[in-house]
Write a structure and sequence with these properties.
This protein is α+β, with helices and mostly antiparallel strands. The chain has a single domain (4-173), classed as Alpha-Beta Complex (Nucleoside Triphosphate Pyrophosphohydrolase), CATH 3.90.79. 27% of the residues lie in helices and 35% in strands. The strands form two sheets. Strands 3, 4, 5, 6, 7, 8 and 9 form a seven-stranded mixed β-sheet that branches. A hairpin with a 5-residue loop joins strand 1 and strand 2 (14-19). The longest helix has 19 residues, at 155-173. It is globular, with a radius of gyration of 16 Å. The model has no long low-confidence stretch (mean pLDDT 92).
Length: 179
């Protein structure tokens, strides 16, 4: 069965559904989500995308990213996908959304991306069709490695990492209870 994604306008209003690969070949704006999981030490859980992925294979990225199923609730879909991809259950909270566009050969990723954060302390159970490896990493170490080895990381991850870290650092500094 072909996976369908939700087509949206620049205000994230649904305008239809279409097959995922066709949307990426045609460069149409569609809804997506990116999840960042932190542990109680403040480390970020990264995944290395499976080599079988049709774009950005073998690159390090945020904990989980995907497209919600048409007709389903966004937070429920993010929670479900995190469990399917990484074997993790976490209370997720959306912190911002944004639009980005990037090309990979004959594919265009043009997404209205909803960014979620959550907490998990433990060992993920990877779905090897999605992720081939994982690691916990301190934000300072991650930023240093991205600067030294940008080709090892996905485009969208590099684009949003600083904003995620800034929001979470601000919340922690204000004494906000994250989870």
């Amino acid at each position: 069965m072909l996976k369908k994604v939700i087509l949206v306008d620049e205000k994230d209003r649904e305008i239809g559904w279409e097959e995922k690969i066709k949307v990426h070949k045609d460069g149409k704006l569609h809804r997506a989500f990116s999840i960042f999981i932190f542990n109680s030490k403040g480390e970020i859980l990264l995944q290395k995308r499976a080599e079988t992925k049709y774009h950005s294979p073998g690159l390090w990225t945020n904990t989980c990213c995907s497209h919600p199923t048409p007709g389903k609730n966004l937070i429920d879909e993010a929670t479900r996908r995190l469990k399917e991809e990484m074997g993790i259950e976490s209370n997720l909270r959306e912190i911002f959304s944004f639009i980005y566009k990037s090309n990979w050969g004959d594919l265009t990723e043009y997404e209205f991306d909803h960014v979620f954060v959550g907490k998990f302390d433990g060992t993920p159970a990877l779905n090897k069709e999605e992720a081939e490896d994982w690691k916990w990493i301190k934000p300072e170490e991650l930023k240093r490695d991205i600067k030294e080895n940008p080709e090892k990381y996905t485009y969208w991850f590099k684009l949003i990492l600083d904003r995620v870290l800034k929001i979470e650092k601000y919340r922690i500094a204000r004494g906000a209870i994250f989870w």
